[in-house]
C-alpha cells in the first residue's frame, strides 16, 4: 500500500456491524499511523502539495527577434526584475542620465542619439528634443556670448589708454529713466586719447521711421576703486519690481503686441502670489533690458554742469544727461553679470519644478512653469535680435541662433505642452469649468483668464510669428517668435 493510500485510510470513518477481535499490530506500524493521523488533523484546510490541485507548468518563451535573427527593441514598461545584462545597462544609463523623453515616460533609456527608447515616443513629446542635457544646463548656448555689452570694449576703454585716476571720489546717481537711481562712487580719469569719451546709441520710437542714431561726448569720469556695488544694483532692480514695473514694460517695449501684456500679467501674478522664483524672472527681464539701455545721470544740481546733455528734440530722452562712457560700460558689465546669474538660478529652479512632473504630479507646478517659460522665451527672443543686430559675423550669429532653437527652445516648449494635456488650450479656458484642475487658485485662474484674452486678441498675429525673420530696422521683428509656440498648441 502506498503512503497516500495509508493516509487516506487513516482519515476515514468506519461503522462496524459487529465488534471484531483486535489483531496485534507491530510497534513500528502503530507509531507511523499515529504520526500520520496527528499530522492530518492539525493541517486544517491545508492540502498536501501532492494531493492538492496541480499547477500549470511555466513555459518560458525566448524571443529571437525578427525571422532573420536581428534583435527587436520592445517598447513599453518592463515586467519582472532586470536581467543581469539589463542591470549593467541601467547602471551605465544612470551615469549618462536619461534623455528628457525617457524621464517623462519613465522608460529605460538607451545610448545613442536619438535614444532608441524614446524614438517611438508618445505624440505629446514629439516637440521635445532627444537630449540628456538637464534643464538647468540648457543655457549652454550662452557660453562666451557677450553681444549685450561687447561693443563698448572697443571704445578706448583700456589700460593702454588710461594714464591714471584722481584720488578724490564723489557719489553720482545713475538712472535709466524710470524713477529710480543707483548710487555709484566715481572719480576723474586721465587718458592719452580723449576720443574715447564719445558715446552713441540708437532709438526707434515710430514704426514708420527708420531708427535714429545719436552721439555725444561725455564727462571724463570712471567708477571708483571699489567698482559697482552688486548689492546696490540688486536693490535698484528690486525697486523697479516693487513700484513701476508695468510702466517700465509699457515704456520700454512701446506696446509690442502680446509680450507687453504677458509680462504685465506675470507681474500681477507675482504681486498676488509673491513667489521668489517669479520675482527672479521679472528681475531677469529688467536686468537684461537695462544692460542694453542707455545709461543716464540724475540731475547733480545746477552747480555741477556735466558734458553729455541730450539737446536733440527727436530723442526720447531730450533734456537728460548721458552717463560718462566709462561708467556706462561698468554699469553694463555689472548688469550683464547679474542677469546671467539670474537666468542660471531660474533654470535650476525650473529643473527642480519638473522633478515633480516626472514623479507623476503633472499640474502641481504648472502655473509657475508657465510663467518662467514665458519670461525665458521672451528674453531669448530679445537675445536673438541683439545677436543679429550687434554681431558682424553671420556664421557666429547663425550658430548662436541654431544652438538656442534646436534644444533649449524645444525643451521649454515641448515639455510645457506635454504637461498641459489635461488642461484646455488657452483660448478655451473657462474658470467655472476648468478652475478645479488648478485647485481653484484665485491668482492662477485670474492669470489664465488674462492670458486667454491676450491670445484671443492676438491669435492671427501669433500664428504668423514662428516664421519671423530678422529685420535691422524693425526692433520688434523677432518678438513673440518663441512665445507664440508656447501659447498656441501645434496640431
From TrEMBL:
The lineage of its organism: Eukaryota, Fungi, Dikarya, Ascomycota, Pezizomycotina. It comes from the Eukaryota. It comes from Colletotrichum higginsianum (strain IMI 349063) (Crucifer anthracnose fungus). InterPro entries: Fungal_sec-metab_reg_TF (IPR052973), Zn2Cys6_DnaBD (IPR001138). PANTHER family: ZN(II)2CYS6 TRANSCRIPTION FACTOR (EUROFUNG) (PTHR35392:SF1), ZN(II)2CYS6 TRANSCRIPTION FACTOR (EUROFUNG)-RELATED-RELATED (PTHR35392). One of its GO terms (molecular function) is zinc ion binding. This is C6 finger domain-containing protein. Residues 1-26 are annotated as: Disordered. Keywords: Nucleus.
Amino acid at each position: 500500500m502506498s503512503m497516500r493510500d495509508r493516509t487516506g485510510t487513516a482519515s476515514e470513518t468506519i461503522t462496524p456491524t459487529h465488534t471484531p477481535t483486535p489483531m496485534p499490530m507491530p510497534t513500528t506500524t502503530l507509531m507511523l499511523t499515529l504520526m500520520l493521523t496527528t499530522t492530518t488533523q492539525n493541517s486544517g484546510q491545508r492540502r498536501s502539495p501532492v494531493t492538492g490541485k496541480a499547477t500549470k507548468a511555466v513555459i518560458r518563451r525566448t524571443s529571437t527577434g525578427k525571422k532573420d535573427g536581428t534583435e527587436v527593441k520592445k517598447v513599453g514598461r518592463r515586467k519582472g526584475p532586470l536581467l543581469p545584462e539589463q542591470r549593467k545597462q541601467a547602471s551605465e544609463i544612470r551615469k549618462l542620465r536619461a534623455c528628457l523623453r525617457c524621464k517623462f515616460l519613465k522608460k529605460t533609456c538607451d545610448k545613442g542619439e536619438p535614444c532608441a527608447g524614446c524614438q517611438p515616443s508618445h505624440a505629446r513629446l514629439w516637440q521635445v528634443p532627444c537630449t540628456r542635457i538637464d534643464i538647468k544646463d540648457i543655457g549652454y548656448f550662452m557660453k562666451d556670448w557677450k553681444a549685450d555689452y561687447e561693443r563698448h570694449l572697443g571704445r578706448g576703454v583700456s589700460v593702454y589708454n588710461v594714464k591714471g585716476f584722481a584720488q578724490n571720489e564723489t557719489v553720482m546717481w545713475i538712472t535709466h529713466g524710470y524713477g529710480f537711481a543707483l548710487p555709484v562712487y566715481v572719480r576723474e580719469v586721465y587718458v592719452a586719447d580723449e576720443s574715447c569719451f564719445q558715446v552713441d546709441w540708437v532709438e526707434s520710437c515710430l514704426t514708420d521711421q527708420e531708427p535714429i542714431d545719436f552721439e555725444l561726448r561725455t564727462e571724463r569720469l570712471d567708477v571708483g576703486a571699489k567698482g559697482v556695488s552688486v548689492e546696490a544694483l540688486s536693490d535698484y532692480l528690486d525697486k523697479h519690481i516693487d513700484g513701476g514695473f508695468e510702466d517700465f514694460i509699457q515704456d520700454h517695449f512701446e506696446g509690442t503686441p502680446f509680450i507687453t501684456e504677458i509680462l504685465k500679467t506675470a507681474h500681477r501674478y507675482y504681486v498676488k502670489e509673491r513667489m521668489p522664483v517669479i520675482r527672479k524672472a521679472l528681475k531677469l527681464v529688467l536686468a537684461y533690458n537695462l544692460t542694453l539701455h542707455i545709461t543716464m545721470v540724475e540731475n547733480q544740481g545746477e552747480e555741477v554742469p556735466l558734458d553729455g546733455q541730450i539737446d536733440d528734440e527727436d530723442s526720447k530722452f531730450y533734456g537728460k544727461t548721458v552717463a560718462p562712457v566709462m561708467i556706462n560700460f561698468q554699469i553694463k558689465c555689472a548688469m550683464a553679470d547679474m542677469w546671467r546669474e539670474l537666468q542660471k538660478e531660474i533654470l535650476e529652479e525650473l529643473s527642480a519644478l519638473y522633478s515633480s512632473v516626472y514623479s507623476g504630479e503633472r499640474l502641481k507646478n504648472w502655473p509657475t512653469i508657465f510663467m518662467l517659460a514665458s519670461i525665458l522665451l521672451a528674453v531669448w527672443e530679445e537675445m536673438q535680435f541683439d545677436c543679429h543686430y550687434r554681431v558682424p559675423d553671420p556664421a557666429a550669429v547663425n550658430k548662436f541662433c541654431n544652438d538656442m532653437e534646436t534644444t533649449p527652445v524645444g525643451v521649454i516648449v515641448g515639455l510645457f505642452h506635454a504637461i498641459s494635456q489635461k488642461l484646455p488650450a488657452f483660448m478655451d479656458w473657462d474658470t467655472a469649468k476648468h478652475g478645479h484642475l488648478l485647485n481653484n487658485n484665485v491668482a492662477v485662474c485670474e492669470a489664465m483668464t488674462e492670458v486667454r484674452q491676450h491670445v484671443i486678441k492676438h491669435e492671427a498675429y501669433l500664428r504668423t510669428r514662428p516664421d519671423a525673420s530678422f529685420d535691422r530696422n524693425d526692433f520688434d521683428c523677432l518678438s513673440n517668435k518663441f512665445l507664440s509656440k508656447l501659447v498656441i498648441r501645434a496640431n
